[in-house]
Design brief:
The chain has 21 helices and 31 strands. It is of the alpha/beta class. The strands form 8 sheets. An 8-stranded mixed β-sheet has the order 13-12-9-7-8-14-15-26. Strands 6-5-17-16-18-19-20 form a 7-stranded mixed β-sheet, sandwiched between helices. A 4-stranded antiparallel β-sheet has the order 24-25-27-28.
Length: 662
């Protein structure tokens, strides 16, 4: 690993002999044949992918082996964002592509903390999908109907999704740690015909029963005709189901259809709705984002095979719940012939090393997690490269928030020196990435490696002019197939247009405060709407977190801009909230240490006017801290949807703080 004092030296450079064997290298050869161009570098390949989309995306379809009829037309109205239409004559089925034959017999491995372990072959997965799909059809579920799941990251969740997709229905999911109101806010908008739920789940060794929540929830969803109960904590699902409204156990639901062994796949248009995903909902009722089957499949195949080098037989893991888009991203790994390693529960169960235990036991090749997990593992002093056999591990992914340069250092120091560390960034809005990893490019400290193929990503200033080496708005200037089909119950597209196209006409504005680097990589500084603006200078929150969280006394932090003076909105001052490691208190000496760390490594504008200790930091269900919700609390404004938070009680620690009164 190279010294962090030399930022122009990469932390990792792929071995040329190995990189020549990657799927990215093979695709580059394919692209040369298609384009007739030399494509001597990744920059050349990327430029071709965005200037010749009618060549590039069919090349991805062919190279990745999509099963289905592509049709002749590739792109209609290419100048329209939104409005461009991809592969208008295509007919295919998403589930068929994930369940196609391959030489790797193992489909799924599941660990539920240290309580439950299961495996499933691809043949068993196909059979169970076939049975469940027939049961759904016999229950009246047809093309376009919605099926909602309220489940942990179980094999049954994947079975349900594939069965739903095979018959042309629409799948939507959330995780059982959501409260009743949070689930209702999501599912009531899309009126599901079927609800699939569990009896409970495990978290950090504790059994958490959710049947009381189901008793309250189901009567509030009149569209639900059947509640299908999946046993996880208990075995007596049939008995439990009799106690719940409209309920039948999973086993009883599929039992009449056990003879089905092969799924039937309905051919569907490219833009046929596959998933409904939800915005975080911390500023109001969650938006229901509809994603099409074709765009999702093509984008995920491109990202999995080319950008992360997932090959048949690889073993892919991502720590995620079913309420985060990374679950949808993970499941598509089946289309590459990979084995999915599923996990549900606390990432620090079993003494704090359970995920690395899993990696070693199952010969994990691709390990996906959040930047917060990496930060926490570093704070705990974990040294997985010394304590675990990680010989099979080739790549590690990080998302959810910006990965600090120190997080990069920890991975290469404590996990493995010869590994592709792919910090990735995109979102629920596109169920995929704008910027991500690349197995044929070096990894530079603190930088996302590259812009995704086919994605015309740029950074612009407030006037919409492209900038390099300075911070600005992350945008995408040309259409791409995985743009949402639309928002649910938004027939005129008004909400959809307002979400992404209001600021710059005909350009997708994603809302990330970002910078393109000298290496043509990307740094994300945080969400634009959480950007600080003291004295008119824009500061990304990640710049402050990076400095503060290096201090051993501090476990994590949250920063906001407080209107100052109060009521006048003339300016803002930076306020930093810190959660300390056990055994520490925030005294004058530590406050000065925090300020000095920030001042010495950034600018005086970054130094907080106030540093305040709190016992907890509020976050969404997917682990993202919620600066805007805290800012609202500090300013005495309502937080519109606390049900979106994993720990809403933490907001009270920020209300009416005397430290912020002067």
């Amino acid at each position: 690993m190279n010294d962090k004092r030399h930022p122009d030296r990469p932390l990792w450079t792929p071995d040329p002999a190995w990189s020549a064997t990657t799927r990215m290298a093979a695709f580059t050869e394919h692209a040369r044949a298609v384009s007739g161009a030399a494509l001597a570098s990744y920059a050349d390949l990327h430029a071709w992918s965005i200037t010749a989309p009618e060549q590039f995306w069919p090349a991805v379809w062919e190279f990745c082996g999509v099963v289905g009829e592509r049709g002749e037309r590739i792109l209609i109205d290419p100048q329209q964002m939104p409005g461009a239409r991809w592969f208008p004559d295509a007919r295919f089925n998403f589930a068929q592509n994930l369940l196609r034959d391959c030489a790797n017999p193992e489909a799924l491995v599941f660990w539920g903390e240290d309580k439950v372990k299961r495996t499933m072959t691809r043949a068993e997965l196909r059979e169970q999908v076939a049975c469940f799909a027939v049961a759904l059809r016999d229950s009246g579920v047809g093309v376009g109907d919605r099926v909602a799941v309220y489940l942990p990251n179980l094999p049954e969740t994947i079975i349900a999704m594939l069965a739903v997709a095979s018959i042309g229905a629409v799948f939507t999911s959330t995780s059982p740690d959501f409260g009743v109101q949070g689930v209702f806010d999501r599912f009531s908008q899309i009126e599901p015909k079927i609800l699939i739920a569990c009896d409970g789940y495990w978290y950090n060794g504790k059994a958490i029963d959710v049947r009381d929540k189901l008793t309250e929830l189901v009567p509030r969803l009149p569209s639900v005709e059947h509640l299908i109960l999946v046993p996880y904590l208990h075995n007596e699902a049939d008995a439990q189901a009799t106690e719940l409204p409209k309920a039948v156990s999973w086993a009883r639901f599929v039992a009449p259809h056990a003879a089905a062994t092969e799924p039937e796949f309905i051919p569907l248009p490219f833009d046929h709705p596959l998933y409904i995903l939800y915005s975080s909902g911390t500023t109001g009722i969650p938006k229901c984002i509809v994603h099409g089957a074709g765009g999702t499949l093509l984008q995920h195949l491109k990202e999995h095979q080319l950008h992360t080098d997932i090959r048949e037989g690889d073993r892919l893991f991502y720590f995620t719940t079913c309420g985060w888009m990374m679950w949808n991203w993970l499941v598509s790994g089946l289309a590459c012939g990979a084995t999915l390693l599923l996990y549900d529960g606390s990432p620090f169960a079993g003494g704090g090393t359970v995920l690395f235990d899993y990696a070693a036991a199952e010969q994990m090749t691709h390990f996906g997690t959040s930047a917060k997990f990496i930060d926490a593992a570093a704070k705990l002093g974990l040294t997985p490269g010394k304590t675990h056999d990680l010989a099979a591990l080739r790549a590690m992914f990080s998302t959810g928030s910006p990965l600090s340069p120190e997080g990069f250092d920890w991975v290469y120091r404590e996990i493995k020196q010869d590994i592709l560390l792919a910090s990735i960034s995109g979102g629920t809005d596109i169920v995929s990435c704008f910027v991500l990893g690349n197995p044929v490019l070096p990894v530079y400290r603190g930088e996302i490696q590259c812009r995704g193929l086919g994605m015309a990503v740029d950074v612009v200033d407030d006037e919409g002019r492209p900038v390099r080496g300075q911070k600005g708005e992350l945008v995408c200037t040309r259409p791409f197939p995985v743009m949402p089909v639309g928002f649910w119950n938004d027939p005129d597209g008004v909400k959809y247009h307002a979400a992404y196209f209001e600021r710059f006409e005909n350009i997708w504005c994603h809302g990330d405060f970002s910078e393109l680097t000298a290496h043509d990589g990307m740094i994300i500084y945080g969400r634009s709407d959480a950007t600080l603006n003291p004295g008119g200078v824009r500061i990304g929150t990640a710049e402050i977190y990076r400095q503060v969280e290096q201090l051993p006394e501090i476990l994590e932090a949250l920063v906001i801009g407080q209107d100052w003076p109060p009521g006048r909105n003339d300016d803002v001052r930076v306020v930093l909230f810190v959660k300390l490691q056990e055994g520490h208190t925030l005294d004058a000496a530590l406050i000065e240490k925090v300020k000095k760390q920030i001042r010495d490594n950034t600018t005086p504008r970054h130094v907080p006017a106030r540093v305040v200790q709190v016992p907890d930091i509020p976050r969404t269900k997917s682990g993202k801290i919620v600066e805007l919700a805290v800012r609202n609390v500090v300013h005495g404004q309502p937080v519109k949807n606390v049900e979106a938070l994993a720990n809403p009680e933490a907001l009270e620690f920020f209300r009416a703080r005397p430290e912020l009164a002067d």
